[in-house]
Design goal:
Shape: globular
Radius of gyration: 12 Å
Helix content: 25-40%
Structural class: alpha+beta
Number of strands: 5
Length: 75
């Protein structure tokens, strides 16, 4: 089964992780990200999230690819 999650980033983080905890393959859980895009080709880095560029690689990305960046907690 494939899961697509959209909404506020905090909600997507918890829903995607709950799906994985329930047995879903992290590669089959996809999240829809929103970032301000200025150049739309990945040159400016404005939409960069870790190694991914939302303008080039997204806006829908597999949880297995983006989880390390979205699971970072602020101190």
């Amino acid at each position: 089964a494939v899961t697509f999650v959209c909404g506020p980033e905090i909600m997507m983080r918890f829903v995607a992780q709950a799906m994985v905890d329930a047995g879903a393959d992290p590669g089959s859980v996809h999240v829809s990200l929103e970032r301000n895009m200025q150049c739309a080709v990945g040159h400016c880095g404005h939409c960069q999230l870790g190694p991914a560029f939302v303008c080039k690689d997204g806006p829908v990305l597999a949880w297995s690819r983006i989880a390390p960046q979205l699971m970072v907690r602020a101190r």
